[in-house]
Amino acid sequence: MSLPDALSLVFNLLIAALVTIVCFPALRDTLHYAAKGCSPNALLDGYQRVGASRNAPIGLLGGFHSNPRSYLLLTTNACVCAASLVRAIFARNGFDRVTSSIRLVSWLLLSVQWNYVRSEEPLPTRYSAAWKGGLAACLITGHLILENTLRKDMAEQPPAASALTWLVCILGMIVALTSLSYPRKARAFRNGRPVDEEETSSVLGRVSFHWATSLVSLSASNTSISLDDLPELSDKMRASNLQNDFMKMQGEFNASGPTPSTLSRGLLSLYWRELVHQILLSVPLAVLAFTPQLALREMLRLLDADAAEHDGLNTWALILGLSIGVSSWLENWLLWTAMNWISVPLTTQLSAAAFSKSMRLSLQTSAGEGHDKASPDSTQNVINLVAIDASRIAIVAGFLYSNLLQALKLAVACTFLAHLLGWQSLLAGLTCLALFYPLHSLCLSKYSAVEKDLMLSRDKKVSTLTEVLQGIRQVKFAGLEVKWERRMNFFRDREVEAQKRAFVWHVINLSIHLLGPVMVSAVSLSVYSWQQGPLTPSVAFPALSTLGYIQFILGLIPELLSGLVGAKVSIGRMAKFLKSAEATGNTTPFRSIQLEDATVSYSKSATTESGILRSVTLSFPLKGLSVVSGRTGSGKTLLLSSMLGECEVLSGSIRRPVPPTYEAIYHTEPNPEDWCLNSAVAYVAQTPWIEAGTIRDNILFGLPYLQARYHHVMFACALMQDLDLLEDRDLTEIGPSGVNLSGGQKVRIGLARALYSRAGILLLDDIFSAVDVHTASHLFKHAITGELGEGRTRILVTHNVDLCSSKADYLVELENGTIRHAHSVVQSYPDKENGSLQQGLPISEEQDEKFDDKTDSQDGGADDIGSPTVPKRFVDDESRAEGALQWWLFRRYIQTSGGWASWAVLAGCYVTYNILQLSQYWWIQIWSRDGIAQGTGTSGSDTAYYLGIYTAIAILSCLAGSLRAYIALRTSLTAASRLFRQLLSVVLRAPLLWLDKVPSGRLLNRFTADFYLVDSRLGFDLTAVLNAGMDCIGVITGGVVVRPILLIFAVLLAAAATWYTKRYLSAAREIKRLESISRSPVYEQIATYLQGISTIRAFNQRKRYIAQLHDKLNRQAQASWHLYLFNRWFTFRINLLGAVFSTVTALAVVNRADITGAMAGFALVFTNHLSFALVSLSRAYSTLEMDLNAVERILEYSDIPTEEPPPTSPTTIPPPEWPQTGTITITNLTASYTPTTAPVLHNINLHIAAGQRIGIVGRTGAGKSSLALALFRFLDPSPNSSCGSASSASSASGSKGNIKISNLNIATIPLSTLRSRMAMIPQNPVLFTGTIRSNLDPFDEHDDDAVLRALRQVHWSSSSSLSSSTSTGLHPQGSSPQASKVLGEKVSPGGTNFSHGQRQLLCLARAMLACPAVVVMDEATSAVDRATDEVIQRSIRDGFLGSRRAGGRGGSGGSGSSRTTLLVIAHRIRTIADFDRVVVMDAGRVVEFGTPRELLAREGGVFRGLVEGDVDAGELRAVITGVGN
Predict the structure, then answer these.
(1) Tens digit of each residue's pLDDT (9 = 90 or more) over 781-800
(2) What CA–CA distance (Å, rounded) separates 110 from 1285?
(3) Do 565 and 623 fall within a single domain?
(4) pTM (2 decimals)?
């Protein structure tokens, strides 16, 4: 017996032993049943394990219908046994008879296994038995194929025996494939929806991604597919479980928080199993990747040898195709593990961890930081962490294995080259390569530095943009779109410059890595030629193929290293954020709220004067009403924040009841009779946080709906009349931040939320400032002191002490950050019970009767507060395109990126590069052909000649490759820059109603994630598509030139690849759009919820909002998961086509009659690359098309109609001094928000003389704010631009009339000019991050003296200048250090380090600084105390209504014509009691207009009723009657 026969026998015995072990459980049960005397029919009908029962056999026919797979296994296996028996009987010799008999025994054992599989009911058990048996069948069949191939090469076999052998092989493969197709378990469902089938799929279905086939078909055929149509992800992929794993890992961090290194180690500990899986597969892949080069070498060696040795060519051709197929499958599987096992869950995990951390952050962590320094805990940076950093870390983590894989491939490649060329040639080549690495290190360090600058620039751009979008109303009211656009473009230009530098260093790095392999190949081939003689095809082409692979590997190294550098930066940012200070609470448990000698501040870094309450000792009565008052900026809001645990306790202590858990409040079934929990807290901020949703959802706030309590709350908060004005009543959808609600409605909804809650402690911050006196009286009587308020601890911050003191149990007054007095009301105000409160009751009681009547009329058990019809959506779902991307998108992108000329140059570079690449291999073919012809007589001069031309071609190819990459990246960046400017311009000029309806998260999604793709990815996508396309052309050309018949197979290949590509793209593009859309809700929630973080924490709702974000993250992960799943499904099938075509090409080439080694090498060296080129082209094109979805989404918003379309009628450019006077004439004005909605203003006719002070009063919904919007042309009497009609003054359907200011029709004046000449001071003030000076004068148009003068006019007294604001601190002529300190005082994002009243004062000072001719104030002093309000009103008379200084736009001072016209929307009659005239509005109409005295004298007048209903009616009457006209 020969050695091969002995080895074959040993392998047969080992396989038989393995089969016996696998089949032992089935064999044991079979013998057990046979021992019990079961009939053969019973065994055929199936059996169970011992202890299981089966009532009756089902019969073969019934069993086949119920489980055809098992019967197919039994039948096929029986045929294999029969064929094996025939082979054993008719074997030619003893050896064949023995081996055939061993295989027969193995197949018989497997028959028992298949019967066991057929009958075993539990799917996991059947799955285990089936895949183990399938593995054994694979081993038997594989060994038979190998043995038959080798024996065919050694000795000729009879045709019948050979045919029988191959029949056994085919049937054996059928058995193996069938057994591997058993499902693992039954499909899982969650909440009635299917779960992804990866965990339940069979082995065969899993490795081929077959379970995605039905999903691909569904997505390809349904262009309106939604995420609800896709399966849910498994439990291990859900955000809640992933966050729990992260929190466990985070527990291993130091007390000081995570560092980049500990965070990296922690993430590795979470995903070590996946990483080990990748590493174990990387080892065989590194070897298999170069098996095609080995097969190519053997085929070329045989072609160069005698014809007698050509018999092995077909075998090596099959090995070549098989190795290409297996290696490409391993690559694809590793990509699957990288993206779906690591990247997707890690992105979700980091996003959830970042949001969870942001919900615990201290509100003032970033207070005091410099204007140019991005705070690590700001809302904007949280969005950046989620949108960019989490994704970058996750992708790099998924591809960590690639670093090892490429190193292993380099090692295998070097080993193969050393065997092929000799160690001297390899050493020379590697020495040459080592010389390039210092340059590479330099490029890497430069790239790292640029990457950091890029991220900082991106952070600054996003933070500024976010604040601009949040303050877009103030920007548009002031007509500052152009100026903010310039500032944003400046930040964008800095980002683009950093991106350009990053691209330049990337291209330089790429050039080095392209040039390195060229020099290695030149040096290696020259050394080989000089030392070992002429270059032959069997050496040249495998060497070049291997060197080309090395070139590809080295080309990946820059991307891998740059990814690692970027991930390092992102991990550092994430670790820094996770290490940020949290809100610790700083309170101690007690039965009531007490402060004992407490000194509190928003920040530990606060100065000795700024933002501090000092030595506060207070004891708020349990279940009593405490009223806190004080001047603006005295620390009232800070006091409430300290009770919420949102502040730093510098000394002393704060005691409060321990709040119940979230579950105790919201997850227990509440008893209506025992609703309130004494220690639970509810908080109503000065500007209540309103989330997007219905009014009912905002009031319920996670609690169950109890109709009786809900109706009671709605009545107590005076919301019943508001519901009458809303078509969908309490089911009316509210926009983000309550943009479609008035300030008073927001406050009452916030109060209703607190009253409906189960809180026993109510913290109410100035809830009366935004409502009129009637509503305030009603709220106090029915909400604060009524049945819903009684029995609760109520701490009310207010300036309206007269209204509240009579029912108060405890009065606190703050002054200059200290307690002025704190007494019980009995001691301080003994006679208040019959005092001022009773003065405000008559109309309030009458109003209460109306409310009672309304409530009674709705009594009856039915829920008739809500809308009887389906409510309308205020915020529409985000739209998405359907179907394939149209060519217009490509054309528009090309035009934006520089036109067709740039792309023509780019295409020329790619064609040149491809021609040079083909020329390299053609020249090698000539060199090796001549080397064979010349034999050993090749001289050194000939080698130099061939080498010189080859090196020249290769260097030119490298230059062309670098140039094409540079042009592609610059072209894409040019397009990105222009698209950003275009989108920014349109968004800033978009209609206000559109901006209200579009959540900021959608805009931020486009400005962050979408532009990240356009900036950093599209350039590489373009490069990949063009490169892969030219590669495919070159590969197919090389094979067709040598063997023209391959053209037929190339056409078939192209047809099959095109079919799969179309099918894949049809499905993937829809999922990509879903994935893009699914990001917006995540960013929107982060941006929105962090604005209401104090409210969410106070109500103990963090868990609910974290759970909501988890749901959104799950949907985003669901889209990403299926997108990558479709990619892997598609790649597997394209790889299979490529492997088949490569095999066919190799067989066709080697079987050509006159083939030579040189020609075969030229053709087959490309064939090795075909599968990769096909996959690369399909993947690159699909990636490009899907990433162009970002361009599509950007263009979608870039094409929206702007407020001011190109005029079709002449416009008027007013002179610079316009308006010379503030005269306002409104004639027959009827206007609506859109042409399709009902008018909100009806037939308004007003004439307001220059310099007059006009008060505008009326109940909520009367049209006061709508009139103000019309003055600024937000309600334009001309047609809405979206109609496409002319912008004339009176042609709109449902809109008519005109407004003239200083005798010019505002409809004919450009919007930016109109709004910049007026000023609007809103009720909800908007401040931007920076300093006081940068907020008052953001574009440095005034000197410090002018800014200080404006602050002095509003009596600014921030806590840093309380004592000196009227002396040296704000002296207009001085530049004292105190003045510089005031102007340089920091403003945190949104102005959260100032009280609401202080923010109003700064907005008022901003308007005074501009000295406009017309000023509209919408409750601009509602949040300041009465004394400050009176002082400010005097300042307004002196500032706005005095002569407009030379710095203003008016003419010479002193004349009445230069006085500012002031329109004030007021709820407090005191504010407008001494005004020149008063406009009283109701239901969008002017019902009264005249002087306050005239209107007060009108019997039954609305204004008179408002005055008489005020708590200070007597004082107001004296003020009004004492004013003469």
Answers:
(1) 899 998 888 889 999 998 88
(2) 80
(3) no
(4) 0.72
